[in-house]
């Protein structure tokens, strides 16, 4: 932000020398980038942070100086006469896009004589790098640099049917801007138009078709408020940035909109003549009142480490434009309309610190410390990372926004289409990912391509699952933490890692698998993981071989196993503090069983029957091996060897007791699984 010394002196008495003043401004948050002399005027370059849009005008900077130096701020008085036919007789305004332009105001000035601006006006604009056009346009630029509110003047004769329409852009619609370049508009672009054609890009730049020229006699003066996100999105897409868009992106003073419009009317009639039509068109004249913020002197002392008298706090806040009144424990403050960043008590304390002086805050002030503990979530995440890194899996970090093609490779959690951002957050990427697996697969391929490293990776991050259509939150995704895993060819090794993870987190219940078919996984090579033991099974996630087509597409060698788990389910079910468990004082009995089973029977089915038969007397169950001999056992048969440890909490089990349990188990397996016991 370029600030003219002469221009500033119109609003506040500059009692400090240049060097001291810029130092005070830097220490209060307006960093001094440099100064230079332009035609005998000192021009100061200040860095204005994005939350201080009020300082993008000379009055805003002067207000800061007045507060720092205890000077009086001099705001120009506005006086002009209205005459002639009312504005409604020559102009109408319709706002069809309030979500992008919540407020649009217009005034009409008739009988202006467009020509050169007076020397003082030209010097002011040139000092801050603004080009001179004509007296009407120069006034709109002057007022913008004066108070930070962008304005625009249209030639009334070029506004079709005398009607201004604020609307979205149409398909394949174009606008020639005042820089005489054509820009493509779309339905996300806020357009200022007449009854048929676009006249300007709202909040960014006016159009050439309605610009003020020497032939103009009647003008429409626009002063409006545009939503920062809408302006920023349009300016980026069109690669068209302007002083106006810069200010709208940082928000403007809603009360100052009308002041800026009247100020421009005053200067235009003084410089270019003409008369202001009675009245103003305002699509949203009611401005919501600011909420009161409480400031407690005790809280000021606690945060800053120094005592400041209540009277001094009152004076500082009033100098910044706050409405201040006393209450039992401190001050009630209503922030001014131009300070949208003041919403909390800590914001007011920061303002007090800036104006009172950061240099007065003691360096050795004790900082109060309150004891705290880790959140349950953080403790669980540390344990999860410990297990996965101990298993030789490296942690990765990938973007949450991916390309649509990448997202569609694997999406085990939902078939609903992914949500997309309006503009690409990364080049070509605007899709909110529904799974971590595609990004990890891409990272594994990148590692292999660049360093011949077969990377086993995991990531703990958010995914964004679209809500079902018709639900109360259909517009918002289900944002949940997931754990994604990519590893080599050993399916059972990764399954064992997941089982270890559940064990280290103290997750109760049994981890079970059920075959599922999901796009992106190999046919017959994916399972759904569930936790069984509570009232209802909980879906933990998915595990399986990645489809060979995807593996070849990424030019990877061998097969790839992927898994994705719900971190929320793991954390909610975890028991992070180990609990005491009773240990039986009675001896146990171990038995090995070798069953011939159909090939289709899975281990979890067999294990479930074992647990059901043995009940609380089953101390341990261990899978040993699977053996196949088609010549002896027949086709589609396999032998499964496993060990059982039987133990009672109340008595010593006899051999007969163990045989009874085994016989019951074998009978169940023969009936339900078509199993045959090998003796």
TrEMBL record:
Q: Which Pfam families match?
A: B3_4 (PF03483), B5 (PF03484), FDX-ACB (PF03147), tRNA_synthFbeta (PF17759)
Q: How is the cofactor bound?
A: Binds 2 magnesium ions per tetramer.
Record carries keyword Mitochondrion: no
Query: Per the entry, which co-factors are needed?
Result: Mg(2+)
- GO MF entries: ATP binding; magnesium ion binding; phenylalanine-tRNA ligase activity; RNA binding
- The entry marks the following residues as binding Mg(2+), namely 341, 347, 350-351
According to UniProt, the reaction catalysed is:
tRNA(Phe) + L-phenylalanine + ATP = L-phenylalanyl-tRNA(Phe) + AMP + diphosphate + H(+)
UniProt subcellular location: Cytoplasm
- Xref: SMART domains: B3_4, B5, FDX-ACB
Where the record annotates domain FDX-ACB, the positions are: 584-679
Gene3D superfamilies named among the record's database cross-references: 3.30.56.10, Bira Bifunctional Protein, Domain 2 (3.30.930.10), Ferrodoxin-fold anticodon-binding domain (3.30.70.380), Phenylalanyl-trna Synthetase, Chain B, domain 3 (3.50.40.10)
Alphabetical GO biological process terms? phenylalanyl-tRNA aminoacylation
Q: Which family does the similarity line name? A: Belongs to the phenylalanyl-tRNA synthetase beta subunit family. Type 1 subfamily.
Known partners and oligomeric status: Tetramer of two alpha and two beta subunits.
Listed NCBIfam families: pheT_bact
* Name listed for the protein in its UniProt record: Phenylalanine--tRNA ligase beta subunit
> What organism does the UniProt record list as the source?
Rhodopirellula bahusiensis
């Amino acid at each position: 932000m370029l600030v003219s010394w002469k221009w500033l002196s119109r609003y506040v008495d500059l009692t400090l020398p240049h060097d001291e003043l810029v130092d005070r401004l830097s220490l209060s948050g307006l960093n001094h980038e440099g100064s230079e002399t332009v035609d005998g005027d000192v021009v100061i370059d200040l860095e204005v942070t994005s939350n201080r849009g009020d300082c993008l005008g000379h009055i805003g900077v002067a207000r800061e100086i007045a507060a720092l130096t205890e000077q009086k701020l001099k705001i120009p008085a506005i006086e002009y006469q209205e005459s002639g036919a009312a504005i409604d007789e020559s102009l109408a305004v319709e706002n069809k896009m309030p979500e992008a332009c919540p407020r649009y105001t217009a005034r009409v000035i008739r009988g202006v004589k467009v020509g050169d601006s007076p020397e003082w006006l030209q010097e002011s604009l040139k000092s801050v790098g603004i080009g001179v056009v004509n007296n009407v346009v120069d006034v709109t630029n002057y007022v913008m640099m004066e108070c930070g509110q962008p304005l625009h003047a249209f030639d009334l004769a070029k506004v079709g049917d005398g009607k201004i329409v604020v609307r979205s852009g149409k398909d394949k619609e174009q606008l020639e801007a005042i820089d005489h370049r054509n820009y493509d508009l779309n339905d996300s672009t806020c357009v200022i138009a007449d009854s048929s054609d676009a006249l300007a890009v709202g909040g960014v730049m006016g159009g050439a078709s309605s610009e003020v020229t020497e032939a103009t006699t009647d003008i429409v003066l626009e002063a409006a408020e545009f939503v920062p996100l809408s302006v920023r999105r349009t300016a980026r897409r069109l690669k068209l940035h302007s002083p106006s868009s810069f200010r709208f992106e940082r928000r403007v003073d809603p009360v100052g909109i009308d002041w800026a419009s009247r100020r421009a009317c005053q200067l235009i009639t003084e410089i270019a003549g003409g008369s202001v039509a009675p009245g103003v068109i305002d699509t949203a004249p009611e401005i919501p009142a600011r909420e009161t913020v409480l400031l407690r002197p005790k809280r000021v002392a606690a945060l800053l480490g120094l005592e400041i008298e209540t009277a001094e706090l009152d004076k500082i806040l009033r100098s910044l434009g706050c409405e201040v009144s006393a209450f039992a424990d401190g001050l009630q403050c209503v922030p001014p309309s131009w300070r949208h960043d003041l919403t909390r008590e800590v914001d007011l304390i920061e303002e007090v610190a800036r104006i009172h002086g950061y240099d007065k805050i003691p360096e050795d002030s004790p900082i109060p410390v309150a004891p705290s503990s880790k959140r349950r979530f953080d403790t669980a995440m540390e344990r999860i990372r410990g297990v996965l890194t101990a298993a030789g899996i490296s942690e990765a970090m990938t973007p949450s926004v991916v390309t649509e093609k990448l997202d569609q490779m694997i999406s085990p959690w939902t078939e609903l289409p992914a949500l997309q951002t309006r503009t690409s957050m990364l080049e070509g990427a605007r899709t909110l990912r529904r799974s971590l697996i595609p990004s990890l697969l891409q990272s594994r391929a990148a590692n292999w391509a660049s360093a011949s490293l077969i990377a086993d990776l995991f990531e703990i991050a958010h995914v964004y699952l679209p809500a079902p259509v018709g639900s109360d939150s259909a517009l918002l995704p289900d944002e949940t933490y997931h754990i994604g895993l990519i590893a080599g060819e050993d399916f059972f090794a990764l399954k064992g890692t997941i089982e270890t993870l559940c064990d280290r987190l103290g997750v109760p219940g049994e981890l079970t698998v059920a075959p599922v078919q999901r796009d992106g996984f190999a046919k017959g090579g994916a399972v759904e993981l569930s936790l069984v033991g509570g009232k209802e099974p909980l879906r933990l996630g998915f595990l399986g071989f990645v489809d060979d087509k995807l593996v070849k597409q990424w030019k990877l060698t061998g097969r790839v196993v992927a898994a994705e788990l719900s971190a929320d389910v793991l954390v909610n079910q975890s028991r992070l503090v180990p609990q005491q468990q009773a240990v039986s004082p009675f001896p146990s009995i171990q038995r090995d069983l070798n069953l011939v089973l159909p090939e289709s029977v899975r281990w979890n089915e067999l294990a479930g029957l074992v647990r059901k038969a043995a009940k609380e007397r089953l101390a341990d169950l261990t899978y040993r091996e699977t053996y196949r001999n088609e010549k002896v056992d027949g086709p589609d048969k396999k032998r499964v060897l496993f060990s059982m440890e039987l133990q009672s909490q109340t008595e010593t089990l006899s051999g007969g007791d163990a045989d009874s349990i085994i016989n019951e188990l074998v009978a169940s397996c023969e009936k339900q699984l078509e199993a045959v016991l090998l003796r």
